[in-house]
Amino acid sequence: MKKIQVLVIGGGPAGLLAASRAAQRGAEVLLLEKNKMTGRKLRITGKGRCNVTNAGEIRQFIEEYPGQGRFLYSAFARFFNEQLCALLEAQGVALKTERGGRIFPVSDSANEVADALTEYAQQSGVRIWTGTEALRLYFETDSGGCRVCGAEIQTKNGKDRIEASTVIVATGGLSYPLTGSTGDGYRWAKQAGHHVTDLQPGLVPLETRESWVSELSGLSLKNVEASLWAGPEDSEICLDRQQGEMLFAHFGVTGPIILSLSRAYAAAKGKPARLKIDLKPALTAEVLDKRLQRDFVKYQKKQLKNALNDLLPKALIPVVIQTAELDGESWVSQITREERGRLGKVLKGLTLTIQGTRPMAEAIITVGGIDIKEIDPKTMASKKAEGLYFAGEVLDVDGYTGGYNLQAAFSTGWIAGEAAAVQALKIEAKLREVRSLLQAEGPQDRKEEDDDREN
Ligand SMILES: Cc1cc2nc3c(=O)[nH]c(=O)nc-3n(C[C@H](O)[C@H](O)[C@H](O)COP(=O)(O)OP(=O)(O)OC[C@H]3O[C@@H](n4cnc5c(N)ncnc54)[C@H](O)[C@@H]3O)c2cc1C
To answer: What is the value of pTM for the model shown?
Structure first.
């Protein structure tokens, strides 16, 4: 059995920063990571380039976390993008800002970020045990309530126990479980009396019913607007809309705007939904109709299937013609106004039926997690068990793509580390005080106590 002041479970971005900060505050810190290396998920972020954060201001940032952004105010007030960038640059990681304020390492290497943060933790004095899995947490319950007192771990030689004054759970969510995030933290949180909200895949591709989609697999559409709709067709409501790039896949649709829309789909909790793709968002219906008329004059001697090349990628033309219930073999000069209207309608809203999302294993983030109502936003301390802290994706906070999820993990980790160290040192000081009081009592006092007991 080992005794430690702050025990951090999980060597991802949240755990690494939590442990570093706790050690800097003077606590003795042990970080457990079940993989052989730290930051396995971090190493595949941003397609291996790691979009570490975003250059946005706090207010704009907060809006990028659907629903729960305000919970992050206090964490961001203490440790935000500027502090993170300064930390990384001090560790030798040069950074660059790309489109949409996305910040990446100049090297385009997520490994460089993960290695730098691991080194930072070691330099701060953190002891890191890789290949060590925490199996469960220990709690003590007395009249004062429930408090965490350590964890059981799996070592090469069997099971062992680590006693800790405070414990930070930074075990991540459920997405990409091969990277190590298998939801252990949720189980422990429930054990401590926490409520864990519905867990769903977030920032995830969407599966569609239409069979033609698979034939377009690999086709990317740039500068389109996709909107997600739910409810009966005559009274449907728009859940969200996004402009940018999307991609067809054998199962349905993916790409940046689809991943963002998947968040609204998760919020609709599996209600039937439709995706409408405006293939020409820059043109109003009237302007588009004029454009079609011009193209039809230009290609009046061609068949419809050969007259849309200026407007659409080749692979999409038969789909659009078929969806508009037109005949591709018709001569353009014979297309009626009503038929042109049908074509325009499809170009402004090519509709797909959403059947579900791809599985959790393919999701960028977990939607849902430990209920933030039960967490102190200033310290990340559990309101259910003393000495227990949570940081990162294990919490019910999720953001859109753009560096927001990593910043949330870094910021919550930082403040959890700070608070857990302060509390652990207080506990230690109190214990020392009690011990010295006992020593000061001396053997004479104790003998008197013993005599009293015998009488
Ligand atoms: C493919 C992909 C790309 C992404 N790209 C970006 C991006 O570019 N920008 C961005 O902002 N976000 C991105 N994200 C999201 C981001 O990676 C996560 O939000 C972030 O890693 C969460 O950090 P975390 O520390 O909370 O959890 P994790 O990174 O999941 O780390 C948790 C760690 O805890 C360990 N662990 C779990 N259970 C135990 C246990 N019982 N004992 C010991 N150790 C344990 C795990 O092995 C893991 O190493 C991406 C996600 C994916 C899947």
So the answer is: 0.92
